[in-house]
């Protein structure tokens, strides 16, 4: 018996096995008509083999991307090799409902798939076997782990009270923006802001009221930031905002909008109402600021000027 004949015999044995195990099998001819459809496919599609036999694959599964699948099949046919697709490349080859709803939250069956050439006695590819593996449990477990790791990463860089970035991540962002701005020769501004008389708030209304102030500022910053901006709690009642592609004058527009929001707002704690204001300092990145600490110090100096000149105002750092 020739090697090709042995391959055919071996493959027919495989077909017998695949009829009974929990793996999907479709065999198509070179015109993409279905010739074999195993019990797995019947159970999950709800269609008997007799109803799909000799039907075009793309009519049975109109959601299957035809151009993509034909390219995969052409590779199998021309090179007589197997090709694989994992759920991470494409969640599924054909959409089936997940039949383990108790143990998995997935709405559909995640699948790995393989296209396998079937050759005749002349070693010509006459059919392609499409094998489908249900990997829903593996996929959902990995996705859940990725989500948990992502949440852990978010928590390690987030300030719990303000829900802004913490100081460590904020300093990394300032460093990255300094490098990016230098590389592309684009403007960037840094705002440092501070709650006026914050000690008085804590001493008069209590630390719970002070925490409410921090949360309120964090919320207003998140509402007013662009997607490209980064805001964080630098420490205590001090915050920083990194504004890429922004001159000092444009940064002042943002700063004044935020300052007026604070000025016009009334804080409530239990049965007491009180007002807060903020002071802000802006530093546009210049050639004289060689490190992120130089940049932070410049913005801090401008913030000090706002405090020194009466608070509740915005000051732009001026190089001497």
From TrEMBL:
Entry's EC annotation: 2.7.7.65
Enzyme class: transferase
SUPFAM superfamilies: Nucleotide cyclase (SSF55073), PYP-like sensor domain (PAS domain) (SSF55785)
Alphabetized UniProt keyword annotations: Nucleotidyltransferase, Transferase
InterPro entries for this protein: Diguanylate_Cyclase, GGDEF_dom, Nucleotide_cyclase, PAS-like_dom_sf, PAS_fold, Rev_trsase/Diguanyl_cyclase
GO molecular function, one term: diguanylate cyclase activity
Pfam families listed in its UniProt record: GGDEF, PAS
SMART domains registered for this protein in UniProt: GGDEF
Domain GGDEF stretches: 186-319
Reactions accelerated catalytically: 2 GTP = 3',3'-c-di-GMP + 2 diphosphate
Designated name of the protein: diguanylate cyclase
Organism name: Saccharospirillum mangrovi
